[in-house]
Amino acid sequence: MNEIRTSRPNDLDAFWMPFTDNRSFKANPRLLARAEGMHYYTPEGREILDGTAGLWCCNAGHGRTQITEAIQRQAAIMDFAPTFQMGHPIAFEAAARVADMLPEGLSRVFFTNSGSESADTALKIALAYHKARGQAQRVRLVGRERGYHGVGFGGMSVGGIGGNRKQFGAMLPYVDHLPHTHLPDRNRFSHGQPEHGAELADTLENLVALHGADTIAAVMVEPVAGSTGVLVPPVGYLQRLREICTKHGILLIFDEVITGFGRLGTNFGAERLGVTPDIMTMAKGLTNAAVPMGAVATSDEIFRTVVEGAPNGIELFHGYTYSGHPLAAAAAVATLDLHREEDLPGRAMAMLPRWAEAVHGFDRAAGVVDVRDFGLIAGIELEPRPGAPGARAMDVFRRCFEDGLLVRVTGDIVALSPPLIVEDRHVERIVEVLDGAIRAVPA
């Protein structure tokens, strides 16, 4: 008879932690035991203000009873049902709710379990679309330097973060990259969208000239790049990218895993920035992170081309065991209800002037070399220590946690993205603790 042995001590040894310095963490662990509203609490009961919405994902704050009860009800009704050649009502309801809030032109929803899966799904749909329309030679995928599209081999290949790629050898073939849009010499301390850099989109024309327009399937970008330090698109950049893609029959994919569900003051970044993609990925805020779930939205034309252009039987040979999982779908429905009832995008939009004023108070702080903001996101870039890039920001991260604030760091950039229920008093506390940490940590 198999038994679960309980004699092994909980010494933190068994869990190989993701994106973590495991040796350092396990020597001095930072543990979170519960969460409510705008705060986490440590096992000892110490309060930690959440300045990052968990990991860009808990947009409605923590411990929302409406979401919890929806998950509990669904677990009692049906814990799991397959969506391969089968269906269950709440998955269709969740898809309809998502479709109802999508930017005009997007109407079909494919469920995944994470942003990484959404990125790979979007790329596969793009390839399937071109093949279905008789252009199977369109196999080239274009990403952007400093882009992050998760950790699947598709998203990692199209992504442009060297540290995420160098351990794993060859990526996908037929991938190219646009330059990133970070121009500190011209756009330092910009409020919102920077003025300079729209012309960087024209690099796509160079790739068209190099490879041939009829070989490029899709371009994938984040409306605002979060994980590489809050890189905000220059005014007119995304519009120019949209024009070039349309001109050459290239699909434009927006990775809205971070910018979706109210983070920029609108349902999706596409609305705030005035550009509609052909395909859009999402995750994180879709379920307020209560249950893992992601999704890919496409235009009706893409869906119909793939489905109606296929022979009888399965049209897209892709999917996941947990696509449209009943508990995740229940969490999504409840989350989107909260999203609408509490007008989370509107709350975010109303907070933007106060947020921008607060974070740009660091413009003149010693050791701060840039501040970037858009929506309820901010990146505060620190002067790196000579010979030790990233060390200073990591020390700021640790000091903030000791002083009761959770921030996120990437390189020497402190990234902030609080839940959309943030209030003035929370903003004041975030600034107070972060300012103290920056001052206390040696250069």
UniProtKB/TrEMBL annotation:
List keywords of the entry alphabetically.
Aminotransferase, Pyridoxal phosphate, Transferase
Q: Name one GO molecular function term.
A: transaminase activity
Presence of the UniProt keyword Flavoprotein in the record:
no
A Pfam family assignment: Aminotran_3
**InterPro entries annotated for this entry?**
Aminotrans_3, Aminotrans_3_PPA_site, PyrdxlP-dep_Trfase, PyrdxlP-dep_Trfase_major, PyrdxlP-dep_Trfase_small
Name the cofactor(s).
pyridoxal 5'-phosphate
- What PANTHER family does the entry give? ADENOSYLMETHIONINE-8-AMINO-7-OXONONANOATE AMINOTRANSFERASE (PTHR42684), BETA-ALANINE--PYRUVATE AMINOTRANSFERASE (PTHR42684:SF1)
Protein family (similarity comment): Belongs to the class-III pyridoxal-phosphate-dependent aminotransferase family.
Q: What is this protein called?
A: Aspartate aminotransferase family protein
Q: Tell me which species this is from.
A: Roseomonas elaeocarpi
